[in-house]
Write a structure and sequence with these properties.
Belongs to the KAE1 / TsaD family. The protein is α/β, with parallel strands linked by helices. The model has no long low-confidence stretch (mean pLDDT 95). It binds 5'-O-[(R)-(carboxyoxy)(hydroxy)phosphoryl]adenosine (KG4) and zinc ion. Zinc ion binds next to helix 4.
């Protein structure tokens, strides 16, 4: 095994992250500075605020990542950075930071696709071999990827409108729960009756692995409005039952589409990533589908499911091993399909 050590830098959304990872899958440090507090009042990530915060925080994140790993720049084999897709101001801040470090220390620079970072995480955490399936379910993404190599991804389907995390957040907003909504909706759902409201399972009648969550959100909105009109407001039980019904519908859709993905690509492992993978009911549903299909179900630790620098460092190592290098002309890309 080689003895590579990479610094990974991530700044494509609202987390400023840096981490040091080795070629034999050790995470020497991982620093994630969340900007959630900066965006909380706006009901979503504000690109201008995000870009400025990344620019201000990147140096410190890198410094801390190196210090916690007990290393200096000269101990590194290379620098990996998210070069897209994402909010362009944040991606540019990360790419500029990485270029400065690489040029200053004479280190190789490797640009990484953020989605490839998520998709290659099971190789870092569990050392899984190719091929495997990845279901990426976060606030911004929802897709099935068949992963055949460090640079070989096939998109098998995904959402045609909202990402599931986005839907969880919107449902929370509709019901007066705090943001980010996912954990609050899950907590309410725990004591709710998922069968009280008839909610749709969008696109299950259509073949393939595409999904839709926007109609489900509208259905919850209608039920809420009907309750408010009938009784002048929502009772605690209404909120719990709506959350439970919504979560069950999302879990059903994800489970059935995962079943189909495993039929279309009968691989030995299905892994999940993204914040929504934290949801216990969804995890349980996916685990069951995987077991029935005879596949191993892998859910990396949550801190590695959500945005982080370790996945970028690792993807950089995989790309570097495959011979990939970038120059000072590495561009930040707002869109970058895998
Ligand atoms: O991957 P992530 O941290 O950030 C990106 O979207 O890139 O995912 C955040 C999303 C939010 O929409 C949040 O509401 C959702 O993941 N989430 C959950 C849970 N925890 C976080 N959704 C459902 N159940 C949860 N327990
Ligand atoms: Zn992400």
């Amino acid at each position: 095994m080689d003895d590579l050590i990479f610094l990974g830098i991530e700044s494509s959304c609202d987390d400023t992250a840096a981490a040091v990872v080795t070629g034999d899958r050790r995470i020497l440090s991982s620093v994630v500075s969340s900007q959630a507090d900066l965006h909380a009042d706006f009901g979503g990530v504000v690109p201008e605020i995000a870009a400025r915060a990344h620019a201000e925080r990147l140096d410190l994140a890198v410094e801390q990542a190196l210090a916690r790993a007990g290393l200096g720049l000269r101990d590194l084999s290379g620098i990996a950075v998210t070069a897209g897709p994402g909010l362009i101001g944040g991606v540019m801040a990360g790419v500029m930071c990485a270029k400065g470090l690489a040029a200053g220390a004479g280190l190789p620079l490797v640009g990484v696709n953020h989605l490839a970072g998520h998709a290659l995480t099971p190789r870092l955490t569990d050392g899984v071999g190719f091929p495997y399936l990845m279901l990426l379910v976060s606030g911004g993404h929802c897709q099935f990827l068949r992963v055949d190599g460090p640079d070989d991804f096939t998109r098998m389907g995904g959402t045609i409108d909202d990402a599931p995390g986005e839907a969880f957040d919107k449902i929370a907003r509709l019901l007066g729960l705090p943001q980010p909504g996912g954990p609050h909706v899950e907590a309410e759902a725990r004591a709710g009756d998922a069968l009280r409201f008839a909610l749709p399972r969008p696109l299950l009648d259509r073949p393939g692995c595409d999904m839709s969550f926007s109609g489900l959100k509208t259905a919850v909105l209608r039920q809420r409005d009907a309750l408010v009109a009938a009784q002048g407001g929502l009772h605690g039980a209404d909120r719990r039952d709506l959350c439970a019904g919504f979560q069950a519908a999302v879990a059903d859709v994800l489970a059935e589409k995962t079943r189909r993905a495993l039929v279309a690509a009968p691989v030995p492992v299905i892994a999940v990533a993204g914040g929504v993978a934290a949801n216990g009911a969804i995890r349980a549903a996916l685990e069951q589908v995987a077991a029935r299909a005879g596949a191993r179900f892998l859910a990396p630790p949550l801190v590695l499911c959500t945005d982080n620098g370790a996945m970028i460092a690792w993807a950089g190592i995989e790309r570097f091993r495959a011979g990939h290098r970038d120059g000072m002309d590495l561009a930040a890309r707002p869109r970058w399909p895998l």
